[in-house]
Amino acid sequence: MSNQYDLALEQPVSIWNKELALPIRELFKNLAKATVAGMFGDSKGILDNVVEASSIVGFEKKPEQAAWVLVFKSLQVTLYELVPDYQDLFECQLDDTEVETLSDNMAKQVNDVPLGIIADFFDHPENLSLFTHIKPAIIYWLESLGMRTQDAEGFFARLKQSFALALHKQWHNNREDYLCVAEHLQSPFADANKELRGWHLYNVWLQEQVNQRMFAEAFSLSQVYVNLNAYYKVAMQEDDEKESLRSRAFNTKKQVVDLHGEINNWARQFDKNCAIKVISGGPGSGKSSFAKMFAANMVRERPDIRVVFIPLHHFDPSDDLLNALARYVESDPYLPTNPLNKAQKTQRVLLIFDGLDELAMQGKLAAETANYFVEEVISKINRFNDAGFQWQALITGREMAVQSVAAKLRGLQQLLYVLPYFVEQDDDTDDSEYIDPDKLLATDLRDTWWQNYGRAKGVDYERLPEPLAISQLQPITQEPLLNYLVALSFERGEVVFDEHLTLNQIYQDLLEAVYHRQWEHGGYKQTRDLEKPHFIRVLEEIALAVWHGNGRVASISKIQQQCESSRVTKYLEVFQESATSGISRLLTAFYFRQSELLDGQDKTFEFTHKSFGEYLIARRIIREVAAITSEVNRNIEDPDVGCDQSSALVRWAKLSGPTALDEYIFRFLKDEVSIRHINDVQQWQRCFAGLFSRTLRKGMPVEELQLSTFSEMQKYARNAEVALLAIHHACGCATENVSDLNLENMHSFSQWLLRVKGSGEEDDRIPTRCLTHIDLQQCDFEFKDLRMANLQNSNLNEVSFVGGELGHARLQGVSAIESTWIGISMSFANASYANFASAEFDHATMFCCILKSACFEGATFHRTDLSSSNLTEANLTYADLTNADLIDSNLTNANLTNADLTNADLTEAMLNNTKLSGAKLKGTNLKGVDLSNVDLSKVDLSEAILE
């Protein structure tokens, strides 16, 4: 290259490389050899050494040489980082001669590629013209090593953004070596100080995050992502107080917005009165994907705003926000400085806190931690904004965590709820729960996603495939993560997609697919002997280690301890290295990623998606249920083998004591039990009913665990006991059998329930949601708060709920003959098909209850509020409804033969095909009631109020 060089002039790479002779051939040869051998190792130490060895001294004074070194080293680092990440997609076996030939061919092709460097080189290195020309060569090389064409396209799409990150790392760390290039291009980067270079590097890193592989795919999130919709809750005014109460489930509307447009406008147009927004969504609803995509777009479009993305499972919320953020910055390899800098008053800052539900604080409950954190964020940001700063915060979290802090978000439209891809609308009514002036809900985003997915996979999908477009699958296909998992299973063709499909079956198929790809077909050449049951077992132990930790992250040493404790380290010996190395390889091969943070000096790994870990935890718990049942049954047959109830409970406490079951694992548990063989489930239910009964009588034997403190013993006992009940509930739902717990007295169960509720999370309703299929006959629940409890199909004969709370409870199918419910508050409860014969409901509040086909024969309802309740097909023969409030109730097909309705108020009630034969109607208010289709035989209407 002559002294009169022009960096912008495109010339073949061979010209750029003529004086330096950087090892192009060796670059592709080393990578090809490692790919064929399938051995990249746990670290990239060997590969890093190759990069360092290729450095050339003395180039930094010549812009053309420095530019080529910067490009080559950045490309080299990028390939050494990306190729191992795609190892499972290389399926071709080349011998040494073929590798040599391929490397010669690649060197020739790359040397012929033209390269020119223009003024925006440092701003957008991903737009380097080299990539346009080198793409055919890279695709050819990848295909020669056995990668599918479409996967190679995905690899190359990521290569460009990863190259930008690698280049900015080189520039940031070795600025003096390449300063002559920046000066020659008259780039503002030449004058940028270290802090500004650091922030630019962080911005590039943020953009690269959405280009990483999506699960085991070659494509990335950015290639398939679909913009989401969300809604604000808008209060609607009701003139009539009782009407407002009656429609309280509908007295708010949902204002639909484009989530991206809404948050984008909020971030760009700073308003100190609305500096904090919270996004709520269920697991797999797309809230974290949105946060990442939004962060990447913001740093690209508004680099003047310092955007910081913070996964909250890596954040310590126990300190002042500024100090906590400073510690986070210190542990982050890319963040240059604390963005909340008091000395930079004019600097715009946007903090994105992802995963409110994943916060962990020593000695504090999850809801308490979330409250403390949100309070601190609100306090600090408002205080500094009042002083003239311009700081904003966006927080995402699952519904349960957000619900606990909702009261703190008093500002207008601070809380957004993510909507699924598809929301079914009733076109025949104006009374929709949604306010959607822009008709956003008219678009089925599932079709858009499948079009993107098809392009990324090289398949022509115009919309959601027909076999998946059935209404029974809508709850799964409308959720972003689940829709993707359905796509994986759909393409495998092993799962029957019908109304009986559960998420557990989809995850099971996912496990099968990964094992099939990784182990049976040579994704890891040295691990073909890892059998599928052992593969799954090890993953379950890893999930257990994570669960016993903080719910997302576990260190290699903790995982190894768990594997040793469960005696499964032998399954890792097929990796032909240490158990620690084996675990590391298994994790990087599956749906885990190495965390940026360390546990001491130990590497940590995290689930790429939390719900996958929750599924594996549920599987591991059910494995323990089966093992304990087997051992207890063996001991019953022969006391010299197996384990007795006490030993079984100790084993159970070790598994379920460290961490409380949450709503999400609980759901997976129920679904996992539902797909197991009914004979096994019946045995589990009998065994765990016996274990729970023993616990009620003698307590959980946590003293055998040698825990250090009494509070720790209490925690283990509470968590293990609730988990026992949860397993019994899941089994009962599958078998529909009712268990006799041999209770000592009428108070023992309610006293236990009061204890476990009092020591758990304030909003933890799992204990009260698991009261199904239990014989609770004659138990005393007087003045107990069991709101939202689930007592379905339990025996409640002769129980007493005097003065209790059962609002929104589920009582379908219970037998509650001669039970006492005087003064109970159970509005909005569902007791369809229940038997309340001869029960007492005097002075009860049963507003808006669902009592369809329930039996109330001979029951009493003196001064009871049954207004707006659904009593369709209910049996109220000989019931005493004196002075009862039945306004707006639905008594269609109900049987009130010989019922006493003296002074009852049935204003506007629906009596269609209702039997009132022999009923007493003295003083009964029947205004607005159509009696034309009512059996009034033997009825005296003379003293009834008809008008």
UniProtKB/TrEMBL annotation:
Domain of life: Bacteria
Matching SUPFAM superfamilies: P-loop containing nucleoside triphosphate hydrolases, Pentapeptide repeat-like
PANTHER family named among the record's database cross-references: THYLAKOID LUMENAL 17.4 KDA PROTEIN, CHLOROPLASTIC (PTHR47485)
Protein name: Uncharacterized protein
Residue span(s) of domain NACHT N-terminal Helical: 22-221
InterPro entries: 5peptide_repeat, NACHT_NTPase, NNH3, P-loop_NTPase
Domain NACHT: 278-365
Keywords: Repeat
Coiled-coil segments: none
